[in-house]
Amino acid sequence: MLGLMNASVFESFAIWGVLLIAFLGLGYALFLRKQVLSQDKGTQGMQDVWNAIRTGADAYLKRQLKSILPLILVLTAVLFFSVYVIPPSDEALKRFSNFAPDMVRLIVGFGRAAAFIMGAFFSLTVGQFGMRMAVEGNVRVASASRRSFAEALKIAYRTGTITGMLTDGLGLLGGTAIFIIFGIASPDVLLGFGFGGTLLALFMRVGGGIYTKAADVGADLVGKVEKNIPEDDPRNAAVIADLVGDNVGDCAGMAADIFESYEVTIVSGLILGLALVSITGELKWIVFPLLVRGIGVLSSIIGTYLVKGKKGEDKGQDAFKSINLGFYSSAAISIAAFLILAHYYMHEWRAFFSVAIGIVLAIVIDEVTKYFTHTHHAPVKEIASSSKTGSATLILRGLSIGFESSAWQFIVIALTIMAAIVIYWGQPVVFILYGVAMTGIGMLTLTGNNVAMDSFGPIADNANGIGEMAHLEKDARQIMADLDAVGNTTKAITKGVAIGSAVIAAVSLFGAFLTDVTKVQAQMGIVDSLRLLITGIRVSEPIVFVGVLIGAAIPCLFSSLMINSVARAASLIVDEVRRQFHTPGLMEGKVKPDYKKAVDICTIAAQKELVGLALIAVLSPLLIGMLLRVEALGGFLAGVIVSGQLLAVFMATAGGAWDNAKKTIEDGLYGGKGSDAHKASVVGDTVGDPLKDTSGPALNPMIKVINMVSLLAAPIIIHYRITNAGVIISMVLCVVVIFGAIIYSKHGALSFKKKGETGF
């Protein structure tokens, strides 16, 4: 099929081969699922705790789906009817030349809407199925820890790998299938696929982040600080909500986040690749990124299967070394395969260097993040030392480290983009933008490994919680504590990769934005010298600079609203946990707390924030584009990318460093648990929780949602003037909805109803 493209025999087989590899990745995920589910679930006490976690997670996901489904249906209709505002591209008319123009319009409309639904469904599947497997795995890891370190590590990592391979397989399947069906008309449809994935990721990141940190902050402040009881003490009413939150935030949210980065980079790569096909007449610019992604799936299958501990040795084993072995094995296999592909297929080295730099970028960001968040390095040790003089100095030290980490990651990403420029030096700008997109594709080559590393964290954390609540043996608890500590570092590392990939993906989308706007300007007859790809985004223009400033403000506003949401929801959890601690017999262990009440508070609080924050991300670029026009919209995107990356890295790193500083003290440093140093570290960790697990990670999908909306809206914006009645009405509606969402998010009715106490 391949849509009127002159593909060679090799290219035709290669594209179908990539589709087969996508199914192979999904098959590997099902194979691992069978392995994990075959393990035992331990004692009845362990299963009771596990059932409470599973029930809470399922309830959250069902309620979340009900909250977001209406908006998904509305946007599906909007995407379908968008082709009646702006006609299909010349490429679409050429691809479906056997049909009348009106029928082509209908085909593209259905294709874009279907792609949007597919992207949303795939993102939802990765998040929900991956999270449910994490819940299935945690109790089995806890049970395995009673037998050996090696078995517990293998089950925890392979459970996480299921999510990683779903991300790989579904992301590759969607992009490849659309290309096979639509060929040169793919850009008309791919944007719908990318938008569906990014929007669902935003929902899952925002909702999961608010849920998990409201529970975590509330549980820690009352349990650890006020009552001086352990982290997962069964007497704490919020402990089940906290364990549920690890899954809906770190598993479902993070998986959907990386999935949409995976989607977006392939979307931008194919759009820019098609632009190069029109210039050079060679199909290799599109086939290469698909083959790179296929190689990545195969290398991840091999690398993730290598992760295992040494049998018969429970003490002194380092899970991090085993995980790194798998990661670097996958990286080595990928680089070698890219080298062969570049030499024998591309017949040039520039494409190889572009994707290889992406892998190097992922490794460098891994190492930078690890340095600033790992317990073995100076930054975390310095934060822990600051706890001796109180929570204020500890918080100040964490803020300093967060800002420093942001600076270094900024420099690393800047050097990476500079390298992409140097590789295609002297070529038209579209080649350079393609090189940046290939860097993003290279960076996410090891998505299977990265998502496995991230999911490993909450799985180990939940297993540790189950072990504590079920009063397992000391040796088993130590194995789980060791895995939990490693998991905390792997979560921090993958957050760094997610943020870095978000920036590269956004820059790639920025390039696609310039390309698409220029294409529409050409259709309108605007002379070459005035087209956006030629003029660029001129910051010297005051109106463009205004767009940059407003764009830089959006991540700040978004972060503020999310942290405020966590604070308000956490205060309700604090009140509820305090109230339950007054229950006669609770502290003596004679009466069980009402876990469901805390779960309900977190669930309802998270859902109340979803749609408002999503509307801000969707409508703000539309308002800027209509009001300030398309070049200022480009400036707006630049501001969002720079400000969003700075804030995301700062919050993720500072929060992770505070968390690990607390863990080093809990392991016995400076007096251990219950000491003044420990209380100071708990305060620091509590401040960092909504930063590293809510607002920081949520900026990743927010950046890409804004870029995707801009890409979809730019062709329409160009065609209409600000004086048009429809444009004026649309701007007024955008202003009303945006300010309404802000006011609601700041002052939403998050107070527990007294009558019946069943909701907010």
**Relative strand content:** under 5%
The secondary structure category is mainly alpha
**Biggest beta sheet summary:** none
Q: List low-confidence stretches.
A: 749-760
- Specify the helix fraction band: over 70%
In oligomeric terms, what are we looking at? single chain
Q: Give Rg in angstroms.
A: 25 Å
Which shape, going by the Cα principal axes? globular
Report the average pLDDT across residues: 85
Count up the domains: 1
SSE sequence, one letter per element: HHHHHHHHHHHHHHHHHHHHH
Q: What's the number of extended β-strand segments?
A: 0
Number of helices: 21
Distance, first to last CA = 53 Å
Task: Give short descriptive properties of this protein.
single chain, 760 residues, mainly alpha, 21 helices, 0% strand, globular, disordered C terminus
Task: Please give a structural write-up.
- With 760 residues, this protein is mainly alpha-helical.
- The protein has one domain.
- Helix content is 81%, strand content 0%.
- It is built from 21 helices and no strands.
- It has helices at residues 9-37, 44-81, 90-95, 101-144, 149-182, 187-226, 239-280, 284-305, 319-346, 350-373, 378-386, 391-423, 429-443, 447-469, 474-523, 532-535, 542-581, 595-628, 630-666, 676-719, 725-747.
- The model is unreliable at 749-760 (pLDDT under 50).
